[in-house]
Automatic annotation (TrEMBL):
Localization per record: Cell membrane
Region named Disordered: 54-73
One CC-aspect GO term: heterotrimeric G-protein complex
GO molecular function, one term: G-protein beta-subunit binding
Record keyword Cell membrane present: yes
Function: Guanine nucleotide-binding proteins (G proteins) are involved as a modulator or transducer in various transmembrane signaling systems. The beta and gamma chains are required for the GTPase activity, for replacement of GDP by GTP, and for G protein-effector interaction.
Record organism: Chelydra serpentina (Snapping turtle)
Domain G protein gamma, chain residue ranges per copy: 5-73
InterPro entries: G-protein_gamma, G-protein_gamma-like_dom, GGL_sf
Major localisation: membrane
Record lineage: Eukaryota, Metazoa, Chordata, Craniata, Vertebrata
Record's protein name: Guanine nucleotide-binding protein subunit gamma
Subunit structure: G proteins are composed of 3 units; alpha, beta and gamma.
Length: 73
C-alpha cells in the first residue's frame, strides 16, 4: 500500500513545505470579516433568483432526472 505523501517526507522537507506555504500566505491581502461578510451576503442575495439550488431546475432541463422507475417484484 503506497504511503501517505507526508509520511514519505523527512521532517526537514515537511518544515520547508510549511515555511514555503506561510511565505505565500503572508503576501495575501487581508480584509476585515465585517466588510467581506457584508459584501458576500449582498452578492448571495443578488444572485438568489438565478440559483438552481434555491429555485430548482425545470424537469425538462434536469440532466440528472431518472430515466425510468424502479420496479420491485
Amino acid at each position: 500500500v503506497p504511503g501517505n505523501m507526508a509520511q514519505d517526507l523527512t521532517e526537514k522537507e515537511l518544515l520547508k513545505m510549511e515555511l514555503d506555504q506561510l511565505k505565500k500566505e503572508v503576501k495575501n491581502e487581508r480584509q476585515m470579516v465585517s466588510k467581506t461578510g457584508k459584501e458576500l451576503k449582498e452578492y448571495i442575495e443578488s444572485m438568489a433568483a438565478e440559483d438552481p439550488l434555491l429555485k430548482g431546475v425545470p424537469e425538462d432541463k434536469n440532466p440528472f432526472k431518472e430515466k425510468g422507475g424502479c420496479i420491485i417484484s
